[in-house]
Amino acid sequence: MAEIKAFKGLRFTEKAGEISTLTCPPYDIISEKQRLDYLERNDKNIIRLELPKDGENPYEKAGEILKTWMDAGVLRRDELDGIYVYEEEFDANGKRLKINGIICRVKIEEFSKGVVLPHEETLSKAKVDRFNLMDGTLCNFSQIYSLYNDDNGETQQIIDNTAKQPCVNEFTDGDGVTHRLWIINDADVISALVSQFAHRKLYIADGHHRYETSLNFRNSLRERGFAKEGDGCDYVMMMLVDMANPGLVVFPTHRLVRNLSSFDAQAVIEGCGEYFEITSESGVENIESKLTALYNEGKHAFGFYCGGNDWKLMVLKDVSVLSEFMPDKSRALRELDVSILHTLVLEKIMGIDAENMAKQINLYYTRVFDEALGEVNNGNAQCSFILNPTRVGEISQVAANGEKMPQKSTYFYPKLITGLVMNKLM
Length: 426
Fold this sequence. Notes:
33% of the residues lie in helices and 24% in strands. The protein is an alpha+beta fold. It has two domains: 4-249 and 413-424, no CATH class; 253-388, no CATH class. Strands 1, 4, 5, 6, 8, 9, 10, 11 and 12 form a nine-stranded mixed beta sheet that branches. A six-stranded antiparallel beta sheet has the order 15-17-16-19-14-18, with helices on both faces. A two-stranded antiparallel sheet has the order 2-3. The radius of gyration is 23 Å and the shape is globular. The relative contact order is 0.18.
């Protein structure tokens, strides 16, 4: 099963400045303005390497900058192999929560081996970008986020014991998330962690593109004669979190429809009537609370919004109808809210097929509830569908079946920070 390893993490030194000015969120949620703001605050912010824009060949330039920073002592590898405990403390759903896990190297395995399992489809464009960055820098700047089952709580006990000690880094970012980092160097503790994961599978929560890219990059290096089996490129940096961690939060990703030539809100409502109980509601401030109540009852429900202060509540009548439309899929995949919405409403009623969705021609996404409404009211979207979050248990069931959810089925919050620790591959 999963093979994990300690490693000599690459980290910023005091020469670089305050750690709070050197880190950033994942590259794919950062706007150009935000990128420039990070660099204005500190020109050595990790965004300069993780989302490179310097020079005619930004990826090659990122490699040069990385070498310069290492030579100058701005970045330095730790002297001892370690496994890193990372914790985020944050506000969500009206509570102050903590989520923690370990950052380590994980041996890359093809999905077909059933050791590391995906749960979402990916886009080729992002994989090309990440491949070019790895080729130019030979480094993982951010960690893939994966989950595991720890029935005995043995790994979590090590994590919690470590988190009682003084940390090597602590700061609070602009979103109010506090980040903390510890290092485990004790050889016996590292050996115990390695043994604990030897019988576990890993479920990718966030970072599918980067994992698939790591596979492709490893194969490419071997084909070009630059690496052999057992080299550093056989591993990728991951953050591993217990699936039962009480701080694990998944937000919904809402769907918005745009530029659909045949869009007719009343026709959508009438078409959906065959499969859903539909009621007219007023007060958009009630959408989330009503959906949450139905979610807690185990029902499949959506909010259909076309503007103003009124909306439609759609509650699925009979989940077994999905067997007719998805006969070759598992029950776990068929009964996902996103599968129900995509299959019965977006495809069958609105005529937006899977390829259209993948290319985001008439469909786009947001995790922000107010944006899902605002895009309709400002005319950018014709309508929006408000969803409940996917359950963590559903994610593992679909992945264990060797299936993949539609894109943007999950949004794990908070995102992992980039720049606390990095993994130099070679």
